Known about the structure:
Layout: H1 6-19, H2 24-43, E1 49-54, H3 58-72, E2 76-82, H4 90-103, E3 108-110, E4 124-128, H5 140-150, E5 155-159, E6 182-186, E7 204-208, H6 214-219, E8 224-227, H7 229-235, E9 250-254, H8 261-273, E10 278-283, H9 288-294, E11 299-302, E12 320-323, H10 331-343, E13 348-350, H11 353-360, E14 373-374, H12 378-385, H13 391-405, E15 408-411, E16 417-420, E17 423-427, H14 439-452, H15 457-479, H16 486-491, H17 493-500, H18 503-508
Parallel strand pairs: 1-2, 1-4, 2-3, 4-5, 5-6, 6-7, 8-17, 9-10, 9-12, 10-11, 12-13, 13-14, 14-15
Antiparallel strand pairs: 15-16, 16-17
Helix pairs in contact: 2-3, 3-4, 7-15, 8-14, 11-12, 14-15, 15-17
Potassium ion binds at residues 59, 127-131, 158-163.
Amino acid sequence: MKVLSAEQLSGADKETIRKQNITSEELMERAATLVFNEINQRLQGAPIPIKIFCGIGNNGGDGLVIARHLIQHGYHVTVYVVNYSDKRSEDFLANYEKLKVITNDWPHLIKEEDHFPEINTGDFVIDAMFGIGLNRPIEGWVAKLVKLINNSQAFILAVDMPSGLFSDKTPGKKAAVIEANYTLSFQSPKLVFFLPETMDYIGDLQVLDIGLDREYISKLISETFLIGKQEAVSLYIPRKKNSHKGDYGKVLIVGGSYGKIGSVLLTATAALKTGTGLCSLYIPECGYDIIQTGLPEAMLMTDTDKKMLTTYPKDFDADVVCFGMGVGTDEKSVQALKELLQANNDPVVIDADGLNILSNNKEFLKMLPKNSVLTPHPGELKRLIGAWEDDFQKLEKVKKFSKKYNVILVVKGAHTFTIDREYIYINDSGNPGMATAGSGDVLSGIITSLIGQGYEPVNAAVFGVYLHGLSGDITAEEIGYESLLAGDIARNMGKAVKALFERESMESK
Length: 509
Ligand SMILES: NC(=O)C1=CN([C@@H]2O[C@H](COP(=O)(O)OP(=O)(O)OC[C@H]3O[C@@H](n4cnc5c(N)ncnc54)[C@H](OP(=O)(O)O)[C@@H]3O)[C@@H](O)[C@H]2O)[C@@H](O)CC1
Ligand SMILES: [K+]
């Protein structure tokens, strides 16, 4: 799914009005009615106090439409107009009148702190103060109202986006931003919904298709995509009946050191579980028995050093090589990575200490084969590209790095971002249980396996990240977040691939 900017959405809004020959008020009615339907479906007429805070622009107009429908369906609704400006939009005013007609009264006006209502724990608050029109931080008494709502313990539903959140930049640390429990957003998710600094404001997210013109949207150029089940399925390459193990990639996993052999075991297990035909490992000698016992399906070569990697098997002919997990950063192991880069022209996958070695030896970056995949967590990323001021600057720096070195970066996080030059792919699978040791080693194994099976490196990264998250979701469903181990993610890869094609799970995301 394309992630559109506020300007693109406003453009689609105008084009839809023109093409469908409707008024903007009718479009507002359509969008806000969808929000009402969602609320009604969940509340089922429950007599809980609903407090709707409406701004004076079109987000506020949405709030007024939602209020009208809720009142007409017998809900206990109080409507507040947060009068932060006198520049009321036309569609706001039209709906202001309509609400008056059904209630015979004007909504409560809030113009200063003294007008604030009490907000209680059991209240259902609807935030329709600001949407994509926010263009400066919320200040003064409006900021105080935002804080009052946040501190109230009421359930908060945000319309389109939580008020105070910009669509194209991060708010300051102390900014007033609604902390929603649930966000119902129109037509397209916004980039800020997925960034580490801002994702917590959103709560659970649901995107409503408000019927903006499909043709116009399909022609819009977007460089940012949300990867859900549908997008993942489209990347899948089916296996041919007439095939053999040589068709599914000969991968080489290079890593491990004394005390960290488990990492390569996880990577290799994940690669085989993702469908690799032939999996070989190159490890320090101390890992021999561990791997042979733990993964009899793998083949093994050992370094002459007992405890760490010192070299690289240059003559080994692999379709794809993965380097880094559990390696450490000893000078001898730096040499091993150098030899690997000198010997390979095809894309490689670099993770963990492999990334730390790159950060300490920046001259290696130019030696990376084109379209290699780097999989940093935030700490490794910082060492690689330097510190950033906010998430938007981070994205710009990663894009620049990707372009400069012709590589793909998988920036790991609650929503992992795969960045390929200008393009950003945001992953939508996964859960907090996956924040566990070895989870990244498994991801590297999955991506390496897919490259070996013939996926383009960027597709291997995007699809691999999705499958990794899906396997984590399936595991969490079975055993919960706390006891989820990285090995479980690898072992459940088969279930993840199967789930891609199950009907009900297709519809769930
Ligand atoms: N596009 C779509 O698909 C559809 C969109 N729809 C809805 O419209 C919403 C966007 O509406 P909108 O453009 O009227 O802006 P909104 O967010 O209500 O803000 C209102 C005004 O506030 C002002 N202002 C800004 N910052 C401020 C501040 N800190 N403190 C004080 N004032 C501030 C600023 O005006 P300014 O004062 O700068 O002139 C701004 O114009 C969208 O989110 C969705 O809910 C649907 O109805 C239909 C389909
Ligand atoms: K809002």
